Amino acid sequence: MFAIKESPKLLLSKGKEPSAIEVLQSMYASNHGSKCLSVTSISLSESLTAATSSRDCSYIQTIWNQTAPLFKPPLLKNSVILYYILLCSFMTGDNNDGKTFCAVASTAVTVECDNIVQPMTLYITMVNSGLTTTLNIILTFLVGPLGKKTTTVLVLIVSIAAGILLLLVRQQLISIGLFFIFLFVVLVLGNINIYLVELNPTHLRGMATSLSVVVARGFGFISVQIIGSLLQSHCTSMITGYIILITSDLIVAFFLPQDKNKSQFGVS
C-alpha cells in the first residue's frame, strides 16, 4: 500500500500540480517503458466548487451534498440503472434421486440449530469463495477485450440460464452446480463500481461506490430472510421470481452506457 501513488486528480484538486504531473509521468513510464511524458501543466475539466464548498458544512449536510447530486439530472439515469442492477443481483446471489432442486428442498428435514458449524458448511463456503475469486480473476482479463457492458450482460445471461435449468434438471449434483452458478450473478459488482467511478465527478465517486455496498449488502440481507422463509414451502415460485428479477436486470443492463475506447481517454 505504501508503494501505491496518490490519484493525480486528488493531488490536483488540492493544488499539488507538480506532484500530480510526477504521478502521471510515472504511470506513463510504467505503461510505455522508457518513454517520457512531456507535460508541463494540467487542469481538471470538472468544477471543484461542490467538493470544496462541503468543507464548511456539518457532517449531515456533507453527506447530503455528496448523495443528492447522484439522483438528480444529469446523473440520475445512470444511477438508477446501476443501483437497480446491484439491487436485483444481490437479492439473488448474496445468499437428488430423480428430483429437481426444489423437490429436494421442499422435502428436506428441518434441523434445529445447535450453534455448531459443521465441517461440510466450511468446505462448501471455501469452495464457493474459491470459485468466486477465480471467476472474478477471469473476468478481469475478459473485461478488456469484451468491455464492461458485454461482460455484465453475459454474467446475467449465464445466471438466468442456470436458474431455468435449476427448475428442470433432476440430477442432484448437477442441480447443486447450477445453484452455485445461479448465485454468481453477484460478479457484476466489479463492473458496476467501475461504471460508478467513470460516470460520476471525482468529488462524488466515494459516496457513489459506498452506496453500491449499502444497496448490495442491504438487499442481500433482505433476500436471505425471504429465501429462509420460502425455500422449503415455495421453492419453485421463489426461484421463478428471482429468475424474473434477473431478467429485468438484463433488460436494464442493455441501457448501460457504451464503453469508452482508448481514443476517448486521449490514449494512443
Automatic annotation (TrEMBL):
<dbReference type="InterPro" id="IPR036259">
    <property type="entry name" value="MFS_trans_sf"/>
</dbReference>
<keyword id="KW-0472">Membrane</keyword>
<feature type="transmembrane region" description="Helical">
    <location>
        <begin position="150"/>
        <end position="168"/>
    </location>
</feature>
<keyword id="KW-0812">Transmembrane</keyword>
<feature type="transmembrane region" description="Helical">
    <location>
        <begin position="239"/>
        <end position="256"/>
    </location>
</feature>
<dbReference type="Pfam" id="PF00083">
    <property type="entry name" value="Sugar_tr"/>
</dbReference>
<feature type="transmembrane region" description="Helical">
    <location>
        <begin position="174"/>
        <end position="196"/>
    </location>
</feature>
<protein>
    <recommendedName>
        <fullName>Major facilitator superfamily (MFS) profile domain-containing protein</fullName>
    </recommendedName>
</protein>
<feature type="transmembrane region" description="Helical">
    <location>
        <begin position="120"/>
        <end position="143"/>
    </location>
</feature>
<keyword id="KW-0813">Transport</keyword>
<dbReference type="GO" id="GO:0022857">
    <property type="term" value="F:transmembrane transporter activity"/>
</dbReference>
<dbReference type="GO" id="GO:0016020">
    <property type="term" value="C:membrane"/>
</dbReference>
<keyword id="KW-1133">Transmembrane helix</keyword>
<dbReference type="InterPro" id="IPR005828">
    <property type="entry name" value="MFS_sugar_transport-like"/>
</dbReference>
<comment type="similarity">
    <text>Belongs to the major facilitator superfamily.</text>
</comment>
<feature type="transmembrane region" description="Helical">
    <location>
        <begin position="208"/>
        <end position="227"/>
    </location>
</feature>
